[in-house]
Design goal:
The complex is a heterodimer of chains A (about 160) and B (about 400). With about 160 residues, chain A is α/β, with parallel strands linked by helices. Chain A has helices at about 15-25, 40-45, 75-80, 100-110, 125-140, and strands at about 5-10, 35, 65, 95, 115-120. In chain A, strands 2-1-3-4-5 form a five-stranded parallel sheet. In chain A, α1 packs across α5 (about 125-140) and α2 (about 40-45) runs parallel beside α3 (about 75-80). Chain B has about 400 residues and is an alpha+beta fold. Helix content of chain B is about 55%, strand content about 20%. Chain B has ten helices and 15 strands. In chain B, a hairpin with a 2-residue loop joins β12 (about 315-325) and β13. In chain B, about 25% of the residues are buried. Classes of the chains: A alpha/beta (about 160), B alpha+beta (about 400). The interface of A and B includes residues 22 and 122 of A.
């Protein structure tokens, strides 16, 4: 099932993880959501280091939702690493951050982010954003070859 | 030649000669000597040489008497000629020429005249006046010294200038760094503040969504108050961030259509729309020379104010209209709020002029400070007319754009 294509959420704030999961649930995103809590862990996950080597348990994601301000390595550093790494350089990345400095937007896009979104503050807007992600990124948008041999959308519908 | 002729020849000799006896009394002088020492024969002949030529009392370093008497002493003792090195020996100026002493430099030679028995009978004191020569040399030395001092001073000035430039550069770099640090700190702070505020808001919403029925009407209304407060806090933090950005970002003024801008702002903010408020814009407002983000900040904050401070039970009603004022457009935002008393108004103007904040305007302070800052950025002025109970009219005076 295409709805099994995994989403990786790199987010250090446990509250935001909770709100993202809830908004995903309320917008009928049924894809499995894996969470890493800092930039370093995100790189380790994508590279398959240590426990992440077990791809049955930690499958390579087809969409990365990336917070910018994280400990150990920032979202921008993750992007920088990502875009030079052959296996995952085509992975779609949505930057989801709490405050948008114009410099950050430009820098993230320059480093190859596919979208830049400021975290909504109300539940209603969070659900609206999750619906948009589901509709555009999981449904209409075509994922890169490494996670979708059939080349169709990422959710069954 | 007769003795008289010899005397005439001696007196007319083209040299400076003085003849002394062994008691160092003046016996004879050549005309040239008299002329050079500004003396008259009848005034000096018969007198002791140091009586006629004492040391200059105004020169503490005067050594003329000492050196000349030593030389003359040697001549008397050795009966041989004695040449003196260059000697400063000031001479008394005649009262008729103003008195005092005149600076002179001499090159003296003292020669004995011996009698048949070989004793010293006379001493011929021959001098050359080298004052001009010494002065000339001194002038040259002095001008050289002045030149050197000048060059040194120039070098010093240059060194100081370089030092100063270095200090200025260093301080500027330090200042830039502190500004950058402050901005980073401000950004980081606002980011860190917003996350928990957003969490408060969202968790309240989650509680209402999932447990609202169990809470009942009152419980839900309290949580809604929490949400509104959190949202306001979030706006305030965003404002602080905007304020920090306004201080540094360079902006360029461009023509802005005020009517369009108001439509957009009202469309984006439900609190400026029915049923929350009624904002009547009397179009066209005209085109001004401004900056969209700055004007949006100004207008949004002024509208916020206008709809916020109304008496309980009154629905906010705001009238926006423009007046022509020569090169300027006076943009008015008039409300039906509680109005402002004279004393408060004065302090409010202080806030506009100096950015002061006081307790009366809490919740209004940062908003108006932003208005002031943003207006300043686009060379606009801001002010307020108000009477208690009759509402307030805030105005913004912005330069017209060329049509």
């Amino acid at each position: 099932m295409k709805s099994s294509y995994p989403i990786l959420l790199a987010e250090d704030d446990a509250n935001d993880v909770f709100f993202f999961r809830r908004a995903a649930r309320d917008s009928q995103i049924s894809n499995p959501i894996f969470v890493v809590s800092d930039g370093q862990e995100a790189i380790e996950y994508l590279r398959g280091d240590g426990r992440f080597a077990d791809r049955d348990q930690y499958p390579l994601p087809c969409l990365l939702i990336l917070d910018l301000k994280m400990p150990r390595k920032t979202g921008l550093e993750v992007l920088e690493w990502l875009r030079t790494h052959p296996m995952v350089r085509t992975l779609p990345v949505i930057v989801l951050t709490s405050s948008a400095q114009p410099e950050d937007i430009d820098r993230a896009l320059h480093l190859g982010a596919n979208a830049f979104v400021v975290k909504p503050s109300s539940i209603e807007t969070r659900v609206e954003l999750a619906r948009s992600i589901r509709s555009f990124w999981l449904q209409f948008n075509r994922p890169p070859a490494f996670c979708c041999a059939e080349g169709s959308g990422m959710v069954a519908r | 030649m007769t003795l008289t002729d010899f005397q005439a020849v001696f007196e007319a000799a083209p040299g400076l000669y003085l003849v002394l006896n062994p008691d160092l009394k003046i016996v004879a002088a050549s005309d040239a000597y008299l002329s050079a020492t500004m003396t008259r024969r009848e005034d000096i002949v018969g007198r002791g040489i140091f009586d006629v030529f004492p040391d200059n009392p105004g020169d503490p370093n005067a050594s003329g008497v000492e050196n000349l008497s030593a030389s003359l002493g040697r001549v008397l003792r050795t009966r041989a000629r004695d040449g003196m090195p260059l000697q400063k020996y000031d001479i008394p100026r005649p009262e008729t020429a103003g008195g005092g002493f005149e600076e002179r430099f001499w090159s003296p030679l003292n020669s004995p005249v011996l009698d048949r028995a070989g004793a010293v009978k006379y001493i011929i004191h021959r001098v050359e006046d080298v004052t001009q020569f010494v002065r000339l040399q001194r002038d040259v030395t002095e001008s050289k010294r002045t030149e050197a001092a000048l060059a040194e001073a120039k070098a010093e000035v240059q060194r100081r200038a370089m030092e100063l430039e270095w200090v200025v550069n260093e301080r500027t770099a330090e200042l830039r760094k502190s500004v950058a640090d402050l901005e980073a700190f401000c950004f980081s702070l606002s980011h860190d503040f917003r996350a928990p505020v957003r969490a408060i808001q969202s968790f309240c919403e989650v509680v209402i969504a999932d447990f609202g029925a169990a809470l009942g009407e009152t419980g839900r209304s309290y949580l809604e108050k929490c949400i509104r407060s959190a949202r306001r806090m979030d706006h305030l933090i965003a404002d602080v961030l905007a304020m920090a950005r306004f201080s540094r970002v360079q902006i360029e003024l461009e023509p802005i259509d005020l009517s369009g801008l108001f439509r957009q702002i009202i469309l984006e903010r439900p609190e400026f729309q029915a049923p929350h408020a009624e904002v009547i814009v009397e179009e066209p407002l005209g085109r001004v020379l401004g900056h969209e983000a700055s004007l949006t900040q100004c207008i949004t904050n002024l509208l916020d104010n206008a709809v916020k401070f109304v008496r309980a039970g009154t629905s906010p009603r705001v009238r926006v209209f423009a007046e022509n004022d020569g090169e300027w457009i006076l943009l008015n935002i008039a409300d039906n709020g509680i109005g402002i008393g004279e004393d408060v108004r004065a302090r409010l103007l202080g806030l506009f002029e100096r950015g002061e904040t006081t307790k009366e305007f809490k919740g209004m302070g940062i908003g108006l400070a932003i208005v002031r800052k943003a207006a300043e950025r686009i060379n606009a002025q801001v002010g307020v007319h108000s009477e208690p109970e009759k509402g307030s009219r805030f105005w913004l005076r912005v330069r017209k754009a060329n049509q």
